[in-house]
Amino acid sequence: MTTRALVIDNDKMAVEELTDVLDSLQHGYDCARSHDQAWKLLKKEAYSYILLEMSTPARSGRRSRRENGLNFIGQLRRFPGREGLPVIAMVGERDYVIDLAIPALRVGAAHFLEKPLTGDKLDRTILEALGLPLTPATLAPAARSPKLAPFRAGRRELVIYPDHAELCGVTVWTDTGSLDMREILIRLSKRNATGYVRIKGTNFETLLGRDASNPVGRPIKDLRDRATLMMAKYRALKCGKLDVINRGGGGYYLNEWIDARVADEEPAAHMVAEDPPKPEVKAKPRPEPRPESKPAPDRKKASRDVRPLNRRQKWIMEQLEGGLRLRFKEILRYMGVNRSTVNRDLKDLRDRGLITTHAEGYYVRTRREKQRTGPCQGTALADNDREVH
């Protein structure tokens, strides 16, 4: 079969550059300016590989969106007869390489390229995707890739900014709606007498308001994957999965070759122990209560129980009362707000004793609350609550 490519890109100039490369390789091609055009071609033509610009719109005339490419690759992997078709994903804005590279490779992209595609970068990637040899007959000789140096061979600086984190001057985390990763890095950057502190995953989940359906290991794994990718790409360093954030002997911790600091902090601020010892103070004896007196009510707890639920919490309670098994990702998808907001709402409902987490990871109403109040009673579902998000 003649080697044939499907080019999916709505930028006319970019398509011309891509097809110039395909002409030089003597590969045939068809071009689609939207996903709907691409699907029509895929149903009637056989292709050897796909060149996909990640921001190509789903339909002609619609706006570009970088997440479209992720959806297209995922759908292609379920398309009968096209499941194994190699996809070379491309993005033209460096700021989004970090956020798109790992997800694109996870959903099934064979390669991920950052524009501009200088030199023979695209030629080599196409031949690799097709499993063809990189010989002088197909390519001009290229300089050997530099050998990657061990990441742990020297001191590596990790700087934690308000909205991103840099490792060796390269961004390895950016805020995409949740600041949980920043809080994790700040806590791990603290030191005690033996080095960086070690924090168990369960302790992190308590501190961040997470639970079994939203474990802290997910954002940590994403940062590890990005560090591996970006250190090799921009610093010629071989960074292992555990070379930045390690785990064992008491929890997660930063390795000793990492010099971590929070931007704009005083140099010694991150060197203090997380829980410095406090001087022992002898408690004064409390007077015995009179027999006829009653203990004072817990005003803080009482006020918390009668506070109106916000609009999001009302929706959660209504779904649970209807018997729906809600998980964190379902709540997050419906609400359209960031993870921190959903975590805060769920933590408040747990603190009030209104919900709990089932062993299988979904949320349920507490039996105690159901028996005591009945549906939507005693939970302060005020009609005048007008909170919007």
Please supply descriptive tags for the structure shown above.
single chain, Arc Repressor Mutant, subunit A, 3 domains, Rossmann fold, five-stranded parallel sheet, disordered C terminus, alpha/beta, 389 residues, 16% strand, four-stranded mixed sheet
Describe this structure in words.
The protein has helices at residues 12-24, 35-44, 67-76, 97-107, 121-130, 180-188, 201-208, 217-235, 299-306, 311-321, 328-335, 339-351, 367-373, and strands at residues 4-8, 28-32, 49-53, 87-91, 111-114, 149-150, 156-160, 164-167, 170-174, 191-192, 195-196, 237-238, 245-247, 252-254, 258-262, 355-357, 363-365. By secondary structure, it is an alpha/beta fold. A 5-stranded parallel beta sheet has the order 2-1-3-4-5, sandwiched between helices. The chain has a 4-stranded mixed beta sheet with strand order 9-8-7-15. It has a two-stranded parallel sheet with strand order 6-12. Helix 3 packs parallel to helix 4. The protein starts with a strand and ends in a 16-residue tail after the last helix.
SSE blueprint:
Blueprint: E1 4-8, H1 12-24, E2 28-32, H2 35-44, E3 49-53, H3 67-76, E4 87-91, H4 97-107, E5 111-114, H5 121-130, E6 149-150, E7 156-160, E8 164-167, E9 170-174, H6 180-188, E10 191-192, E11 195-196, H7 201-208, H8 217-235, E12 237-238, E13 245-247, E14 252-254, E15 258-262, H9 299-306, H10 311-321, H11 328-335, H12 339-351, E16 355-357, E17 363-365, H13 367-373
Parallel strand pairs: 1-2, 1-3, 3-4, 4-5, 6-12, 7-15
Antiparallel strand pairs: 7-8, 8-9, 10-11, 13-14, 16-17
Helix pairs in contact: 3-4
